[in-house]
Each structure stands twice: as C-alpha cells, then as structure tokens.
Amino acid sequence: MGMSKANCLLALCLWTIALLCSADPARADHVRFYVDALPPYAELRDDGPPTGFAVALMGRLMHSVHEHFDPSDVTVMTWARAVHEVEVMPGTALLVLARLPERIDRFKWVGPLDSLPIGVFARKGAGVEVNRLEDLKKYSIGMVRNTAPYRVLIKSLPSVRQNMVMLSGIPAQLRMLREGRVDVIVQAIGASIRLMGDEGMPAENFRVVYRFEPLQIYFGFNKSTDDGLIRRLQSALDRFKEPDSSGSSPYIRLREAYFDEPAPVVEGNRDK
C-alpha cells in the first residue's frame, strides 16, 4: 500500500529535522556550564552574563576545538548545588573545581587552570589567634557546604564540624564575619578580598590568620562527558600555555588581564 500525501510530508519533515540535528552535533549536544562568584575566575554581573578568567579561558578553549560556548549560556548557581548538579547530570561542567583526592574519580578534568590559595579570615581586633589548625576548635566558623575549603578543613580536622555555621556562599560568609556572628571563615583568599568591596567591607579591617596549601583548580566535567572532548580541550589548554616568540604565552597574557593587582599580604602559618 502506498503512503498518503500527509504521511509523505510527515516523513519528509522528520528526515529534515534529523538531518539538521546531525549537521551541527556540537550545538545539539553542547555542555551546560555552571559557576558561582569566585573573582577573578568568575565574576557575576547584574547587567550581563558572568565574566572572569575561567569564563574567558573556557571560551577560548571551546572555540579552538570548534565547540559551542557562549557566556550567556552559563548558569549561575551556589557552589554546593553546582558541584552536586555536575556530578549527577550528564552534559554539565563546572568552570572552577578544586581537584581533591576524593573527587578525582567522580568527575572528568581539564587543567590545571590555576592554583588557589585558601585561608582563615578573622576581624582585626577580635583577638582571634590560629597558630596551629587545632586552634580553630575555639571559634565559630562560617563555611559553605560541599566546597573545597569545607572538604579540606573537615579532612584535616574532623572534630571541628560542630563549630561550623553553614552558609550559602562567600557573600554570606563575609556578612556573618563582618557582623560578628561567626569568629572566622575559611575561603579562597583572593576571591574573598575582592568580594569584600562588593559588601562594603574595607579589606584592611580583616586579616588572614592561617593558610592552607593552595589547591589546584580545574574545569570539572560530568563523568559521562565524551573522552574525545576532554582530550581535545586538554590539548588545547596545553598548547595555550606554551611560550611563543615573545617569551610569554597566550595563557599568561590572558591571566594577566584578570590578575592585575599584587597578591595580598597573608599572615599566619601554613598548613603542612
């Protein structure tokens, strides 16, 4: 029995749709990226999509391997929720993720993107002294659950969990510290200092009283991400870091555009 005219038109439409989808697989299957505020790697704006070093670098890498990337497609989400989302949802990735030992087998990685200093902040004049990690047991600590600083602290000092006040993000940590509702916070040093300005907090009113070994941060992808894409992005990043005739590299020049200030003076001991 021959096909009716209506069935023929339906079949033609379905074939055309399939052809269009297969002609642009990168756009049909493009990765959904997540980020929260962590300047200068990721800076949130009221008047546009996120910016920052990690956003710009991922844009360069994705475009160099002919994959879709647009900052306007990046989803802003609290760190704790974003880490969970990328772990369980195929086709997703985080623009900044610390490569901790317990996370290695739970994500796929492209990097390293950079090294991230982590420290303990306190108010000046509050009498907080942290000469060794165990001293934190004397203080209330503002933390963001499921983030790298939280995991590092819990692993180093499990008993300090009872001292923690769980908060939604770095701005909430800073406000609690400013108001004296927690004694200290543990967070990325550079990002916290930059966000103090957004909260109207003069950085000179606070000090870093303890610091941990810097964390290596990467782009973190859901485990189901195609290995070929991971290899192509890693190769693109490796090439981007290679010195050119100027003695510098595209990676260094891009990084310098976002890290345009001297590193802050950090007091206190370093975790060994």
From TrEMBL:
<keyword id="KW-0732">Signal</keyword>
<protein>
    <submittedName>
        <fullName>Substrate-binding periplasmic protein</fullName>
    </submittedName>
</protein>
<feature type="signal peptide">
    <location>
        <begin position="1"/>
        <end position="28"/>
    </location>
</feature>
